Amino acid sequence: MAVLQWFVDLGASVMLPILLFIFGIILGTKPAKAFKAGLTVGIGFVGLNLVIGLLTNSLGPAAKAMVDNFGFQLSTIDVGWPAAAAISYGTALGSLAIPLGIGLNVVLLLAGLTKTLDVDIWDYWHCAFTGSLVYVLTGNFALGLYTIAIHLVVIFFLGDLIAKDIEKFYGFPKITFPHGASAPSYLVAKPLNWVFDRIPGFNKLEANPETIQKKIGIFGDSTVMGVLIGVVIGFLAGYSVSEVMQLAVQTGAVMMLMPRMVSLLMEGLSPISEAASEFVKRRMPGRDLYIGMDSALSVGHPAVLSASLIIVPITLFLAVILPGNTVLPFGDLATIPFLVCLMTPVFRGNIIRTVVAGTIYMAVGLLIASWAAPLITEAALAANFDMAGNSSISALVDGAVWTTFIFVGLAQVLSWGGITIIGVIAFAGLIYLNKIKPKREAKLNDDIGANL
C-alpha cells in the first residue's frame, strides 16, 4: 500500500508516462516509440498544468477582489479540487480506490462489459471522494468501499457512453473521458439540449467560435475573446487600468496556449491509441477499445474556455443571490472548464447554450456543495487536512457535482440498497451499450444488406 501511495503521489505528469509506456509495450509498441509517446504525454501535462496554473493565479486574485469589491459574505470556503483530492486519498478507505478501480476495469474489459481502458487512474480520487463522504455519514467502512466500487462502474459506463461524441466534436479518435467531475454533466446537457431545440428563437442562435468569428471578425477570435472576458472580470474586480490589462493578456494567453498543450498531449497519445486499435483488431475482432484519459484534454477547446470564463463571474453572483447557498466559490473557479467541457460536445460548440446550461448546472451545484459542506469538513478533519483556520469547507469539484448528491443522499436514505440501485442502473447501461446495442445494430445492418 505504501508503494502504491508513493506512485500516486508522483502526480499525473509522472505517473501517466510510466503507465502509458507499460501499456504501449503490452500492446506491441516498440520500446523506444512507447517511451517517447509516454514522455511526450508527461511533458504535455506539465505544460497544461502550467497554463492552468496561470489561469488559477490570475483568476484567483480577481475572484477575491470581486468578493471584496461587492462585499460578499458566505460561511463556507471553496478550497478547490487539489484539497478535495488530498482529502479523498488521505484515508485508508480512499487509498483503496486505485487498486479497486484497476481490478474492476480489467474484469469488465475481459467480460466485454466496457470498451474503456482507463489509464487515468489518478483521477479515481473522484470515486474515493464519494466513498469517503458515505463513510463519514454512516461510519460503515464496507459501505464506503462499496460506494467507491459502484462509482467506478458508473464512470466506466459514462466513458463508453460519451466516447462517440468526444471523437466527433473534439476529433480525438478512440479517446474517452471517464472523469468523475466532467462526465456527469453530459447527462444533464442531453435533456437541456432537447429543451433548447424547442425554444423558438433560441434554437436558431448559432454561437460556436467559428460562427462568432465570421459575424464579428477579430472580436470573435478565441484569443481576443479571452482578452475581452479578462477585461470584464478585471472591471468587476475593481482593478486599476494596469491590472485589468495584465489580467486581459493572461486570459488571452490561456486561450492561445491551452489548445497547443492539448495538441502536444494528443501527439503523445496517438501511437498508444493506434497500438490499442491494432491490438483489439488482432485479439478481439469486432470490438472497440477507448483509452480513458483526463478531461484536461478537452478544456483547451475555444468554446469550452470562452463559456467557462463567462460563467466565472456568473457563479460568484449566483453564490450571493441563491437562497440556501453558503459556499463562497474560490479555489475551483478556474476549474469550471472541467465541469462544463462535456456539455459543449452535446451543444456542438454553441457557447450561448453552454453558458445557459452551465449557469443552471452551477446554481444547482452550489446548493449541493452547501449541503455536502458538513460532510466534507468532517472528512477533511479525519484526513488531518489543514483547514487554514476555516470552520467550514467545501469544493465545487466534486462537491457541486450531482453524482455526489445521488450517492451520498441514497446512502443516507437507503444505505446499501440505495448504492445498489445506482449499481444496477450502471450495469444495465453497460450491458445495453456493449451487448444489446451492438447486436441490434448488426441485425439492422444485415436486414439492410438483405434488402439491397
TrEMBL record:
Looking at the record, the residues that make up the PTS EIIC type-2 domain are 4-434
Query: Where is it located?
Result: Cell membrane
| Presence of keyword Amino-acid biosynthesis | no
Q: What is its main location?
A: membrane
Q: Name one GO molecular function term.
A: galactitol transmembrane transporter activity
For membrane topology, the record states: Multi-pass membrane protein
Q: Which GO terms describe its biological process?
A: phosphoenolpyruvate-dependent sugar phosphotransferase system
TM segment ranges: 6-27, 39-59, 79-109, 143-163, 223-241, 289-322, 328-347, 359-385, 405-433
Q: Does the keyword Transmembrane apply?
A: yes
GO CC annotations on file: plasma membrane
The protein's UniProt keywords, in alphabetical order, are: Cell membrane, Membrane, Phosphotransferase system, Sugar transport, Transmembrane, Transmembrane helix, Transport
Q: InterPro entries of this UniProt entry?
A: EIIC-GAT (IPR013853), PTS_EIIC_2 (IPR013014), PTS_sugar-sp_permease (IPR004703)
For this entry, the protein name equals PTS galactitol transporter subunit IIC
